[in-house]
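Revision sheet: structure tokens.
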Amino acid sequence: MKVLRPFILHFWEAKTMLRMLYTDFRSTLLNRGIKILMLIFAAYIVGYVVLLKLIITLLNNGGSLTADDVLMVYNQSSIFVVTAATLIVYVGEFTNGSVRNKLCSGAKRSDIFLAAIINSAFLSFLMSMFCQMLEIVLALIFTDGLHSQILSEAAYSMLETTISCTAIAVFSVGIIMIMGGNYASYIIGLGVAFLLKIFGMDVMRQLYPEKGPVTLTGTKLEVYRFFDKYVPYARCSGMPRWDMTSLLIGCAGLIIITTVIGLIIFDKKELK
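Predicted:
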């Protein structure tokens, strides 16, 4: 019996983890805030495309709405949408007592944290697929196809955004768990997303100037290149510039760092 005990405990822990994941997945799919967010953003995508099509038609200057334009809509806002989604779900988990209930039922803090990480990746994937499928449908209805990209390039761009958003969602949840799910998480989470978005725009402007050569040199040039190549926040632009290997390295690095630091801090965090 003593020999079997470690295996029984391991099986029980794995079963508990799977049950927690199932509960988290289900509660995420049923979350009212997520449904409202997706409905609002879907309306934004449709409204943006329809309005752009209407403006181009009224101008009647020979221009046309392309699939390239439509497929860029989610990319422009994906950082904020994914961050907002994780905030809605996981700040809610703390405020409604779900996290404390899990602890009271005997769940380990490490399991709670890891379940949140996995669930955030699941949530990000669902949201990216939903928005991108909606864009594809709108592109088929309102445009005459791709102009500046070929199909494989468009597919790569969508995949790049999906993978990047997964890492961003994990990072956002890590911040929420480290902060204990208090309402300041909204300020920090959205603030970080906003600042990195602004910095990413400056990186694009400096590394890919419309006129003239790149003027950056030395350490600043290397920092900007590193951000542009490896940081997921820079890979949601809809304009792929680097290979898949660098994307996977950057996303894996952010996920691993978030998970390790988050586990250490959350394990010692005093929850209110």
